[in-house]
Amino acid sequence: MPSPLPAFDLNNQNALITGSTDGLGKAAAELLAQAGAHVWINGRSETRCDQVAAKLRKAGLKATSLPFDVADETAAELAFQTLATAGGLSILVNNVGQRDRRTLPKFTRNDLQSLLNVDLISPFRLSQRAADQMRANGYGRIVNISSIAGLIAQSGDAAYTSAKAGINGMTKALAAELGTDGINVNAVAPGFFKTEPNAAAAEDPALLEKLQNATALKRWGNPEELAPTILFLASAAASYVTGQVWAVDGGYTSHY
Ligand SMILES: NC(=O)c1ccc[n+]([C@@H]2O[C@H](COP(=O)([O-])OP(=O)(O)OC[C@H]3O[C@@H](n4cnc5c(N)ncnc54)[C@H](OP(=O)(O)O)[C@@H]3O)[C@@H](O)[C@H]2O)c1
User: Which residues are the signal sequence here (predicted)?
Assistant: First the structure.
């Protein structure tokens, strides 16, 4: 299917979207596939990856299941060997991120290390591997899924906030280092989106009232509303955009 605008055409590009069997990652994978990319569907559940990839293929899109735990170095290395054999990666969307809302006294060193391992170290390591393949082709796009929690903070969320602020710093640092290799690195910082981890919160009238006061758009976001920004940053259209962290939050961080 031809893309309406050439700069957004992702044909002949392999795109790995981590955590793409659900939520924001799944919506991004669907849109990137519609723009022509061969999307590699990731999550820890092989069954779910197979199902999501099969559904996309049934719709005439290019998709392959690539299950692995982003925190498992050996599995990640094997996955990148598979991608190299398939022609190399052009687009990496580092989407996986765990949340653990506990107050400071309840966080052990192991808890902290475990969260940082998934939310910060793994995207860093996957970006290193992706950059090796992108450098060889002189072109690449890395899009990190951060959070408004990397920009502003709330009580009881210190580990996640630290990790997401780290993602923002990593985005700028990788952009600075990889720019001359033709690799642009950006982040998006979602606000409140209706995904499975927020299922209970989405039913909470007090939180809805808070969002109605705090966001310019006065509502939750839907996963499909993050994907277009990811598509832009993953495309050739973003040729002069790098090192940025873009809030996609209905105006939560821009409005008071
Ligand atoms: N939703 C929001 O409102 C919101 C707001 C700000 C930021 N974010 C960020 O957006 C990203 C996606 O959030 P979401 O709400 O869409 O999450 P989600 O609905 O929970 O999606 C999780 C996806 O990640 C996969 N996954 C989890 N741990 C994994 C691991 N270690 N290795 C590989 N895959 C793994 C899951 O599959 P398996 O379980 O099979 O592994 C699933 O595909 C996160 O980085 C989150 O911090 C979300």
Answer: none
Query: What burial class does residue 237 get, using C-beta atoms within 10 Å of its C-beta: 0-12 exposed, 13-18 middle, 19+ buried?
Result: middle
Dist CA 125 CA 44 (whole Å): 17
Q: Is residue 28 part of a domain?
A: yes
Give how many domains the chain has, as a whole number. Answer: 1
User: Which domain does 51 fall in, by range?
Assistant: 6-190+226-248
CATH number for 162 = 3.40.50.720
For 170-205, the pLDDT digits (tens) are 999 999 999 999 999 999 999 999 999 899 988 999
In contact, 42 and 15? CB cutoff 8 Å? no
Mutation probe of ligand 1 site: the residue of 96, 162, 171 with most atoms within 8 A of C-beta: 96
Closest CA to 174 of 149, 146, 147: 146
Q: How far apart, in Å, do the first and last CA atoms of the chain sit?
A: 43
